[in-house]
Each structure stands twice: as structure tokens, then as C-alpha cells.
Write a structure and sequence with these properties.
CATH topology of the largest domain: L-2-Hydroxyisocaproate Dehydrogenase, Chain A, domain 2
Strand content: 15-25%
Order of helices and strands: EHEEHEHEHEEEEEHHHEEEHH
CATH architecture of the largest domain: Alpha-Beta Complex
Number of strands: 13
Helix content: 25-40%
Radius of gyration: 21 Å
Mean pLDDT: 81
Number of helices: 9
CATH superfamily of the largest domain: Lactate dehydrogenase/glycoside hydrolase, family 4, C-terminal
Low-confidence stretches: 210-215, 306-349
Distance between the termini: 61 Å
Length: 349
């Protein structure tokens, strides 16, 4: 028996007309499984008996550049509101997907913090956009369709992340060697220009966080729908999916931070693919990515959530800020500007 879906759209009253337009477009689809679609602008009405909650970006970056401190404060305060409402109104087994382009890992952690009765296994951060973008770029390089699998996204989805190609495979590649549909070849064996992987590929992917609208529209809808399908109907057997989840110490990643890593979906749940082997170089990269993510948490207005041993002196944060927020706090095609409180020498505190 097919499951009908009721969709509830929430945004501020400022976007009421846009919400109304989306409702009408959804109704005009006349989709048999769409039971109802409604719009809400009052927070008290949010998430009532929700089985699935999808959180997109709330903090829209304007041409006026906010300070990093202000950005994190807004994000955290909004997540406190949403988390509390999810805790109060949603189904106790609700599944929460955190997506967008700003502070995705931090927002997932804050939602978990302020919705303490929700199983942490039911809160995930979306990394599939980066994964899909990497696959598409690799497919273009190989002049083939996007039959690329097992690309792994590690770390901070909307900040410092590592695209790991060591397990990546290509299927249906047009070459002298052919095989059945399940025949694959190691991707790195097919890309003979290793300099391209280290330079252009890495550079383009690192710039994704500065694309003003990269998490809007078809690509975002597609990856969210894909993850939901996997969550309820299992991911393809043997295939790696990258998801931001609460670390329990896998791969020597510190516990208690949301970190993107390889998982599989099965029987309505996900599990980390802990049998994934990583070399010493990758392990060192993961160590640095974890340190960077810890600094995101320590910069939030709720530092008491972190063990004291995680809080670094202030000068160690400066390197992370420069590497993670280049472009994020800057509108497109503008000169490189930084919040005034970040300019100048950074002293220990």
C-alpha cells in the first residue's frame, strides 16, 4: 500500500507570497500520493506530529557582511527555537535532515542539543550535494555520464571538508575494456592527470561554499529526496553514501561532533561503514578537520556544550576562520573583506 504525504511549509511572514505560490504549484501537480500541502508562518504551528523535518538555510547572506560572531549567534538562536519546537510538537521518532550552505554541522548539533528526546541517529546533516558535485565534475573530466560511485565526503560539510577518491569507482566507462553492468574500475586509474585532481578539482570543490545559490533548486531537492528514499528503502547494496552524523569515535574522530563520513542505509536506519580503510595521510587530514569543527562549536554562544579540553587558545581559531569562511561571508564578485574584529593580530585568551 502506497504512503500518502502531507507537506507543511514554514517560513517567516515576509515570504508568505512565495510560500503560497509553492503551495499552488504543488497542488497543481495533482500527484496521487500528495494528501495535502499547507503553509505556516507561525512558529507555534511548526512540526506538529511531523514524521520528517527538513531544515534549509535561515540565515541568508546579504551584501552587508555580518561578523562571524553574529552569524553563529543567529544560527544557534534559530536552532534553539526549532529544536525546542521539534522536541515539543514532532513525532517522537521524527527524522530530521539539516541541509543548506551555512553551518550545516553546527546546526545539526544544535538541533540535537535542544531536542534531547529525539534519537541522535534520527538527525543527519546533508553532505550529498558535495558528493554529487564531485561525481559530476569527475564524470565531465572522463567525458562520461555520472556513473561514479563511492566518493566520500569527510568533515565539515559547509566548511573544511575532504573529498576522498581512494574508494571511488566508475561504471560503464567507454574504453577498450567492457563488462557487465556491475563491472567497475577504480576512478583514479582512469584519470591520468593527477595534477588535475590535486589542483583544479580540489580548487573548484573548495569554492562551492561561496556559490550564492548552490543549495537551492533542483540539486538540493534531488539530494534530499535521494537521502529520504535511502533512509526508508535502503541505499544500493555495497554503495557508500556520505552523511554528517554524530561521531561516536569512528576513525579516531572525537566523539560528540557532527562529522561527515561514509554510511550505508538499511532497514530504516543508517550505519557507519567502519570497515572503510584509510591510510595515515587521510587519518591526519581527518584529525585536522575534526579540530576545525571543534572550533566551530567553541565559537558558538553555547561553549558549555564542549569539554574544556576542546577549547583552543584564540590564535588557533584564526587559521580556521581564514580557510573556512573565505567567500562565505562575502557576496559574489566583491573584494575580499573580513569582519573588523578579525583584522589585526590575534592574541591568546
Amino acid at each position: 500500500m502506497a504512503t500518502e504525504v502531507s507537506i507543511h511549509l514554514l517560513d517567516s511572514n515576509h515570504y508568505k507570497e512565495i510560500l503560497h505560490g509553492i503551495v499552488m504549484e504543488a497542488q497543481d501537480l495533482a500527484f496521487p500520493l500528495l494528501r495535502s500541502v499547507s503553509m505556516h508562518t507561525e512558529l507555534d504551528d511548526a512540526f506538529v506530529q511531523a514524521d520528517i523535518v527538513i531544515l534549509l538555510d535561515d540565515i541568508l547572506l546579504q551584501h552587508k557582511i555580518p561578523s562571524l560572531e553574529d552569524c553563529i549567534r543567529q544560527v544557534t538562536e534559530q536552532c534553539k527555537v526549532y529544536g525546542s519546537l521539534i522536541e515539543k510538537n514532532a513525532n517522537s521518532r521524527v527524522k530530521v535532515i539539516v541541509s543548506g550552505k551555512t553551518f550545516v554541522n553546527l546546526r545539526a548539533l544544535m538541533i540535537m542539543t535542544f531536542a534531547p528526546s529525539i534519537d541522535s541517529l534520527n538527525i543527519i546533516a546533508m553532505a550529498m550535494f558535495l558528493e554529487s558535485a564531485a561525481k559530476a565534475m569527475l564524470a565531465r573530466k572522463l567525458n562520461m555520464n555520472s556513473a561514479v560511485k563511492d566518493v566520500i565526503v569527510w568533515g565539515n560539510i559547509s566548511g573544511n571538508s575532504y573529498i576522498d577518491l581512494s574508494k571511488a569507482k566508475v561504471y560503464r566507462y567507454d574504453s577498450a575494456i567492457w563488462g557487465p553492468p556491475n563491472f567497475s574500475r577504480h576512478l583514479l586509474d582512469m584519470i591520468y592527470d593527477s595534477n588535475w585532481v590535486r589542483s583544479e578539482f580540489a580548487s573548484v570543490l573548495s569554492s562551492l561554499s561561496s556559490r550564492e545559490h548552490h543549495c537551492l533548486g533542483m540539486s538540493a531537492a534531488h539530494v534530499i529526496a535521494t537521502v529520504l528514499r535511502y533512509w526508508y528503502q535502503d541505499s544500493p547494496p555495497g554503495e557508500i553514501v556520505s552523511v554528517g552524523i554524530l561521531s561516536e569515535g569512528q576513525f579516531c574522530i572525537p566523539e560528540g561532533i557532527f562529522f561527515s563520513m561514509p554510511v550505508r542505509f538499511q532497514d530504516g536506519n543508517w550505519e557507519v561503514i567502519t570497515e572503510t580503510k584509510i591510510n595515515e595521510e587521510t587519518q591526519e587530514i581527518l584529525k585536522h578537520l575534526a579540530h576545525d569543527l571543534i572550533q566551530v562549536m567553541s565559537l558558538s554562544i553555547y561553549p558549555f556544550l564542549l569539554p574544556a579540553s576542546w577549547l583552543y587558545p584564540r590564535q588557533h581559531l584564526f587559521r580556521w576562520v581564514l580557510s573556512s569562511f573565505r567567500g562565505l561571508l562575502r557576496p559574489p564578485n566583491s573584494p575580499q573583506l573580513w569582519p573588523s574584529w578579525l583584522i589585526g593580530p590575534v592574541s591568546a585568551s
